[in-house]
Amino acid sequence: MSIDFVALDVETANRHRGSVCSVGAVRVRDGRVIERFATLVRPPVPGFEPMNVRIHGIREPDVVDAPTWPAVHRTLVDLVRDDVVVAHNASFETSALRQACVASGIPAAPFGVLCTRRLAKAHLVLGDYRLTSVTTHLGLGPFTHHDALQDATAAARIVLALAGIAGVDTTAELVSTPARP
């Protein structure tokens, strides 16, 4: 399988999407994970809300010495380069990236994006299309949900599994493969 992409996930500190406090990314080359990147982030929109902390367990003291969003964004741009970015519920992830850039006063990178939730809807028949539901259906094993690196890895594994089922070698072919009947 010659499929290449970068899977990405973020966690936010509060209800503002620009409050990115954690990032995980997985680079896939020729259908294999070749690089992983994970970091906590000092949120460009400060403040941790209890609901968000309950979801991911990251607290304000955890990010005191973390890099700022502009530094993390530069690392992501270098990691992604010209690849398509894959994310589960990609509209949230891309909105968080853009809003963190706005809050930091930097231009957002124009990543091409592919949503694994939409791909799963196109290729599978499930009761729901949450990340954990899709990975369970595909037999991809357990992972720690809302850990940015593990969620990014799960999204990567979904793309690889769906590409295998569809018998395709690129993300473009996966998108253009006829959907389920």
Keywords:
7 helices, 181 residues, single chain, five-stranded mixed beta sheet, alpha/beta, Nucleotidyltransferase, domain 5, 41% helix
- Number of strand segments: 5
* Quaternary structure classification: single chain
Low-confidence stretches: none
Distance between the termini: 25 Å
Rounded to an integer in angstroms, the radius of gyration calculated over CA atoms is 16 Å
CATH names the topology as Nucleotidyltransferase, domain 5
Shape: globular
Strand order of the largest sheet: 3-2-1-4-5
Give the secondary structure arrangement, pairings included.
Blueprint: E1 5-12, E2 20-29, E3 32-40, H1 50-56, H2 69-80, E4 84-87, H3 90-104, E5 112-115, H4 116-123, H5 131-137, H6 148-166, H7 171-176
Parallel strand pairs: 1-4, 4-5
Antiparallel strand pairs: 1-2, 2-3
Helix pairs in contact: 4-6
Task: Briefly say what this structure is.
This protein has helices spanning 50-56, 69-80, 90-104, 116-123, 131-137, 148-166, 171-176, and strands spanning 5-12, 20-29, 32-40, 84-87, 112-115.
What does it look like?
The chain is of the alpha/beta class and 181 residues long. It has a single domain (5-173), classed as Nucleotidyltransferase, domain 5 (2-Layer Sandwich). 41% of the residues lie in helices and 19% in strands. The protein has helices at residues 50-56, 69-80, 90-104, 116-123, 131-137, 148-166, 171-176, and strands spanning 5-12, 20-29, 32-40, 84-87, 112-115. A 5-stranded mixed β-sheet has the order 3-2-1-4-5. Helix 3 links the parallel strand 4 and strand 5 (112-115). Helix 4 packs parallel to helix 6 (148-166). It is globular and about 45 Å long. The mean pLDDT is 96.
